[in-house]
Amino acid sequence: MFEEPQKPARFDPRDPLGVDELLSGEDLAFRDAVRGWAGERVLPHITEWYERGELPVVRELARELGGLGALGMSLTGYGCAGATQIQYGLVCLELEAADSGIRSLVSVQGSLAMYAIHRYGSEEQKRRWLPAMAAGEVIGCFGLTEPDHGSDPAGMRTHARRDGSDWVLTGRKMWITNGSVAGVAVIWARTDEGIRGFAVPTETPGFSAVDIPHKWSLRASVTSELVLDGVRLPADAVLPGAVGLRAPLSCLSHARYGIVWGSMGAARSSFAAALEYARTREQFGRPIGGFQLTQAKLADMAVELHKGILLAHHLGVRMDAGRLLPEQVSFGKLNNVREAIDICRTARTILGANGISLEYPVMRHAANLESVLTYEGTVEMHQLVLGKALTGLDAFR
């Protein structure tokens, strides 16, 4: 039977490794829907929001993201989309290409708060919270980090004590995304039984949240301090499946996977701005993209960007197969965020003085990534995770 010859492949500057060929039609539909939404709802306003240091329409955006199926999208049941991890990763990439703060909103909602309830909560808790959270009608936050305990959550001071059939929570949590707009907070506290998780309705007396001012990164994101002053909860507020530190750490591993993809979105946006600028900015009588040093920068940026996307895709395939290890998540988070920052910094040099202007996205992405670099595990913590895995020796203590 005669077969028509295939058309020769062509190099695509937007996808030089042909990663799109690995994606299904449904993958592309998720990606393109979120890319279109971000282009219409976020990009026209993000410079103003970032400059003002606020996200004034966070509740509206949450409902719209819920309508897209982007909240808790890889979870099943309870109104969640039941999407693949590849699809979730692509959504994180597109959201962070707009701004890290928007991706953080989705990551904390779905991969931390909703994931904790979905994996460790009771059936009653799942039915109470997850459908409304999937729709964006209720925003969630995740309270693990404390003012004096970030990389060492085992040292947390927030505690919960039994009082009859109730629990009483006291403590503080710091650097909590979505804190002041959340309707439910997943709070981790020390108890006589070990570390436990609690689904805390934020209108409960004794619970308060105050936004953290003077941020120079993640400015278009709600970041709060939580105070729990004798918060009394019924017995059914505790997440029954979560006992010990492994529970919150498993949630963090799920969220870090989204960062592996998301950081490449910030890098892609900065690279695209630098590439377009290099094609049109003229010096010495021709576009600067025609000079060897500029081309070397663009080539190196493209190599690291698309290697990072390919790494993210590989980890997504493993996660969908149930074979992704925490050490592999550390591998991806460590590499991709570091490379994303380097891409942003190199892009800034191509733009010259214009690179520091909010007219271009580069400096905004670079500043945001300084937070992404250290939240949900600092560079040093992920290096030590890999160091332990490689040597079999624990260097944490």
UniProtKB/TrEMBL annotation:
Top-rank EC class of the record's enzyme: oxidoreductase
Signal peptide coordinates: none
Pfam families for this protein: Acyl-CoA_dh_1, Acyl-CoA_dh_M, Acyl-CoA_dh_N
EC identifiers of the protein: 1.3.99.7
Cofactor: FAD
Ranges for domain Acyl-CoA dehydrogenase/oxidase N-terminal: 26-137
Keywords: FAD, Flavoprotein, Oxidoreductase, Transit peptide
Acyl-CoA dehydrogenase/oxidase C-terminal domain boundaries: 244-390
Gene Ontology BP annotations: fatty acid beta-oxidation using acyl-CoA dehydrogenase; fatty-acyl-CoA biosynthetic process
Keyword Coiled coil tagged: no
Family: Belongs to the acyl-CoA dehydrogenase family.
Protein name: Acyl CoA dehydrogenase
Organism, as annotated: Streptomyces clavuligerus
